[in-house]
Design goal:
15 strands; 4-stranded antiparallel sheet; binds pyridoxal-5'-phosphate
Length: 401
């Protein structure tokens, strides 16, 4: 398939921006197929270069040779806290507050029931982002039923008005998965806490894309996945953040033996471990977890503030290229134009979005489709460049042409 012709001024701008990009060399830390523009790192991050060898070592040596000794000698047992401490600086958390394991859905359950228990009796409502990713809504409904609360869907912008003395828990996404809208984590956290509620943030679409500042903004609890901007691999384990001030009182609804203060005492009574480790449940998924640990090497020496600056520059430039290449009126951005309201993706609404995305993918530009009519383009600054943004917009324009 021949490449559509570029607008020279945009191609030149892309080349100049890539040449000046301090993060551009980080692409070498990833294994990406030639000729592909990968704009789906907000769904599944690319493969970091060291993961294949690290994983082979885990399988062949740590498991194959050391066998059960690896729980200790290869530090398998402490991996959930150790890797949590590597994720912590990326989300603005001091050590000891993030534990890795299970899926985001399972961690949402722990966080929401734990939050309801922290909120105590006398409060009746669990406010949940009305546009949330479905699993958050499903789990919020179930957690509410189990704890005697009523789950109430609320647009994040309306949360301050909806808060009251009856609010027990608030569950919000920092970045909306469909539109890419960034919500006001500092402001909404402060409002929820001022009302006496416990706030839980889902960081799936923000961790690794922008500064989160969990400690700085006094967030209570947070969850997130590691397979998007953290590049942990398909189905890599998620994480749970429990602010230090809540740890002693955090009462997990899944008190498995791994979260026990002394798991190998094998006692019939449950005594929770100190710190974030009480968020553990059962035996960790070591192969995925250690693949994630190796993947996090891609972040060595990287400042999340620089990632954010490049992410905004990339999405600005992509929107500019879309305006130049795509005939007017055929696509509409549903991602806010304002930097303070934009995550690290651009979502374009269009007719026949599913077919359009299929065409893009067949031409080597990989984004994704979200029902009913949204084309999503995720920009991962560690491995996406400005020439990628230009080519993606140019290919989109060609499809409409
Ligand atoms: C915002 C958000 N929350 C939760 C999930 C689900 O996570 P998991 O499948 O790991 O439970 C996703 C998955 O894409 C998501 O985007």
């Amino acid at each position: 398939m021949s490449e559509p012709t570029a607008i020279p001024a945009l191609a030149a701008r892309a080349a100049a921006l890539d040449a000046a990009d301090e993060l551009g060399k980080l692409r070498e830390r990833f294994t990406l197929p030639d000729g592909v523009v990968y704009l789906d790192g907000n769904s599944l991050g690319a493969l970091p270069a060291g993961v294949a060898a690290a994983t082979a070592d885990v399988v062949a040596r740590q498991w194959g040779e050391l066998l059960i000794r690896s729980w200790d000698e290869s530090r398998w047992w402490t991996a959930p806290e150790r890797i949590g401490d590597r994720i912590a600086p990326l989300v603005g958390a001091a050590p000891g507050q993030v534990v890795v394991g299970d899926s985001t859905s399972v961690n949402l359950f722990k966080a929401l029931v734990g939050a309801a228990r922290l909120a105590g009796p006398g409060r009746t409502r669990l406010l949940v982002d009305a546009a949330t990713f479905p699993t958050d809504g499903y789990i919020a409904q179930s957690a509410a039923r189990m704890t005697g609360l009523t789950a109430v869907p609320v647009d994040p912008a309306d949360v301050p008005a909806a808060l009251g003395p009856d609010t027990a828990v608030v569950l919000l996404n920092q970045v909306d998965y469909r539109t890419g809208r960034l919500h006001d984590l500092p402001g909404l956290t402060a409002a929820a806490r001022a009302a006496g509620a416990v706030v839980v943030w889902d960081l799936c679409h923000s961790a690794g894309a922008l500064p989160v500042g969990l400690d700085a903004h006094a967030v209570d609890l947070a969850v997130g996945c590691t397979y998007k901007y953290l590049n942990g691999g398909p189905g890599s384990p998620a994480y749970l953040y429990i602010a230090e001030r809540h740890q002693a009182a955090f009462d997990s609804p899944l008190p498995g033996w791994n979260g026990h203060a002394d798991p190998f005492a094998m006692t019939p009574d449950y005594r929770p471990a100190e710190g974030a480790a009480r968020g553990r449940v059962g035996t960790p998924d070591i192969l995925s977890m250690l693949a994630l640990e190796a993947a996090l090497d891609a972040w060595d020496g990287v400042r999340i503030e620089d990632v954010r600056a490049k992410s905004l520059a990339l999405t600005d430039f992509f929107l500019e290229c879309v305006a130049a290449y795509v005939p007017q009126g055929l696509v509409e951005s549903v991602t806010p134009a304002g930097h303070d309201q934009r995550g690290s993706q651009v979502s374009l609404r269009t007719e026949n979005a599913r077919e359009v995305m299929g065409e893009l993918i067949s031409r080597g530009v990989i984004g994704d489709f979200r029902a009913p009519d949204v084309l999503r383009f995720g920009f991962t600054p560690l491995y996406v460049g400005f020439a990628d943004a230009e080519r993606a917009a140019r290919t989109l324009g060609h499809i409409f042409g």
